[in-house]
């Protein structure tokens, strides 16, 4: 997945070290964050760009949509916008 300067694959320990170093430089030093955060970022960014959950599931290689949904971070702003789409002035009797 990751290629080194010599053209060969980097092992997971090297990738972990690289990601940890850049996370620390970015001021993100919470616990044992490592390369797995890239999967979360990938899924979240696709979701933010309007890509559907089933497509994200396939791209991430997940077998279950439930797994994908754990990766997708829905921001408070998005939740607020979803609620704002509702119209509360409509009488319940009119919808029956």
From TrEMBL:
Pfam families: Phage_integrase (PF00589). One of its GO terms (biological process) is DNA recombination. Residues 1-84 form the Tyr recombinase domain. Keywords: DNA recombination, DNA-binding. One of its GO terms (molecular function) is DNA binding. PANTHER family: INTEGRASE_RECOMBINASE PROTEIN MJ0367-RELATED (PTHR30349:SF41), PHAGE INTEGRASE-RELATED (PTHR30349). This is Tyr recombinase domain-containing protein.
């Amino acid at each position: 997945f990751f290629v080194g300067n010599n053209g060969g694959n980097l092992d997971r320990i090297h990738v972990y070290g690289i990601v940890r170093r850049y996370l620390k430089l970015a001021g993100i030093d919470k616990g044992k964050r490592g390369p797995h955060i890239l999967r979360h970022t990938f899924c979240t960014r696709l979701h933010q760009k309007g890509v559907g959950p089933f497509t994200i599931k396939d791209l991430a290689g997940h077998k279950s949509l439930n797994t994908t949904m754990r990766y997708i971070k829905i921001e408070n702003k998005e939740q607020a916008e979803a609620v704002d789409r509702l119209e509360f002035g409509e009488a319940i009797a009119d919808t029956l």
